[in-house]
Write a structure and sequence with these properties.
The complex is a heterotrimer of chains A (219), B (218) and C (50).
Chain A lengths: L4 H20 L15 H28 L2 H32 L8 H21 L4 H29 L20 H35 L1
Helix pairs in contact in A: 1-6, 2-3, 2-5, 2-6, 3-4, 3-5, 3-6, 4-5
Chain B lengths: L1 H16 L2 H21 L5 H25 L3 H10 L2 H31 L6 H27 L4 H26 L7 H30 L2
Chain C lengths: L1 H48 L1
Classes of the chains: A mainly alpha (219), B mainly alpha (218), C mainly alpha (50).
Chain lengths: 219, 218, 50
């Protein structure tokens, strides 16, 4: 009855596995982070998913500008909304983690600044869309803004951490870096989690776009 | 090429004829700096100086650039459309806004020095960063104002859309200014910061040239 | 031993919540598929009428 049931069930299974295994698997005992390292299985996939969604919307925005098909505009905008949703989840899980390890919900960290600016850019995208009534015009102008903002963000996220001398995120400063120290068992839980969440986000995206298309054909 | 020159000349002529616009911005800059001086006094620490300077310049830039496409009515846009290619229009706007921004920035730097004093910046880093920052902010805001001018309420949208685009640049500029306070800077550090700013500028200009034609046609 | 149980309970609660989410998604997908099918049938019927 449902098309593509197998990949949807695979996604659900992967996440279910990662949720349960993430709690039960043995983790290395690192200073400061301790047992909260388990949050890696839940927090980091949110950002991966968000970037997958924003990347998808970039692709569809470019497609829209080269073909002027409203179908592509629906895909672009819905994946932005979906990405914002996952970004908010990433912020919440990250803030809980930050409170327990660094003692504050928000710290001045390049990664956090990047996250805040990208959320702002895409909320601005949503506002821009709601302020234009005419469909083709809205599609074209928001596609332009989407491409413009995404490119700047990519550069910003690539350049800024390199200029900053300290960061609480892995790989920089004098912190116990989680990513490099990720042992095999953790990898075996983390990758399924990331892949599973990305699959599920595409499922949600599919449902949302199909609903939009149905609503459009009813009107 | 000729079109770009003519369009820049036209923008300058327009600016000179309606002096209230640029005078208004200058008045804004001077009065804010005066208020800042009243609040903080002459001696403040360097990071406050840097923060205030870039905030004041940022809002001056928003004021100066936001009207660059708003003042073009639909009829006039149609006229340009027939006269010049879209690429020439956006390049001319970027050049004009960058020059305007540079002049405004220099003037506010001067006023800032007069009222607030000048920290011991490494000028080899600060001046190029300042110049590149002016160009970057002006060209990014040019594009944003072109987007905002196609919507209903462009004043509010200009701020909403412009902020996420300008914040990365601003953070880099503040970083560069703070770095230029450090004594014993090695050339490699200077080069790294300048090249990061330069990279952003180049990308903004290229993106504007590619994307602007899509905004322009109806 | 008690510690181990705590992790298990957390895992189970999260798993159940997530399973609920998955079932919700599944039901939503089924509903939309059904409506799409109906729409297709209507379109075909219209074509046949013409």
């Amino acid at each position: 009855m449902i098309k593509g049931l197998w990949w949807k069930l695979t996604g659900l299974g992967l996440i279910l596995f990662s949720i349960i295994a993430g709690q039960l698997v043995g983790v290395p005992d690192l200073p400061v982070i301790r047992e909260t390292i388990r949050n890696l299985f839940y927090h980091v996939p949110m950002w991966f998913t968000m970037f997958a969604m924003f990347g998808t919307s970039l692709v569809y925005s470019i497609k829209y500008l080269s073909g002027n098909k409203l179908k592509n505009d629906i895909m672009a905008s819905e994946s932005v909304y979906n990405g914002i949703f996952f970004g908010i989840l990433g912020l919440i899980t990250g803030m809980v983690w930050a409170k327990s390890t660094w003692g504050d919900f928000w710290t001045n960290d390049p990664q956090l600044n990047g996250a805040a600016v990208s959320m702002m850019a895409y909320l601005a995208y949503a506002i821009l869309r709601s302020s234009i009534d005419e469909k083709a015009m809205r599609a074209r102008i928001s596609a332009v803004y989407n491409i413009f903002a995404f490119m700047l963000l990519v550069i910003f996220l690539g350049v800024l951490p390199r200029l900053a001398d300290s960061s609480l995120h892995p790989g920089k400063g004098g912190n116990s870096s989680t990513m490099e120290g990720l042992d095999l068992t953790m990898r075996l839980v983390f990758y399924p989690a990331a892949i599973g969440w990305i699959i599920i986000s595409y499922w949600i995206l599919q449902i949302r776009t199909r609903k939009r298309r149905l609503l459009q054909s009813v009107n | 090429m000729k079109e770009i020159k003519e369009l820049v000349r036209k923008d300058f002529l327009l600016e000179l004829r309606q002096k209230y616009a640029i005078n208004g911005i200058l008045l804004y800059v001077v009065s804010t700096i005066f208020v800042v001086q009243l609040c903080f006094g002459r001696i403040i620490d360097e990071s406050t100086w840097i923060a205030l300077f870039w905030i004041i310049l940022l809002f001056a830039a928003f004021n100066a650039v936001s009207k660059s496409f708003v003042q073009e009515s639909t009829a006039r846009r149609l006229y340009y459309y027939m006269l010049a290619p879209a690429v020439a229009i956006v390049i001319s706007k970027i050049i004009y806004n960058a020059m305007l921004m540079f002049i405004l920035g220099m003037l506010s730097l001067l006023v800032f020095i007069v009222f607030m004093g000048f920290p011991q910046f490494n000028l080899y880093l600060f001046l190029p960063a300042f110049l590149l920052g002016c160009i970057g902010i002006a060209s990014a805001l040019t594009m944003v104002s072109a987007i905002a001018s196609r919507t209903g309420n462009n004043a509010a949208l200009m701020a909403i859309l412009g902020f996420p685009v300008v914040v990365p640049l601003l953070l880099l500029l503040v970083n560069a200014s703070k770095l230029s306070l450090k004594s014993g800077l090695i050339p490699a550090e200077i080069l790294q910061t300048i090249s990061a700013l330069f990279l952003i500028d180049v990308v903004v200009v290229i993106l504007s040239v590619i994307l602007f034609p899509y905004l322009w046609r109806d | 031993m008690e510690n181990e149980n705590k992790y298990l309970i957390v895992a189970l609660v999260m798993g159940i919540i997530f399973a609920g989410l998955g079932i919700y998604l599944y039901l939503l997908d089924r509903k939309i598929s059904r409506i799409e099918q109906k729409q297709d049938e209507m379109k075909n019927a219209n074509k046949n009428l013409k």
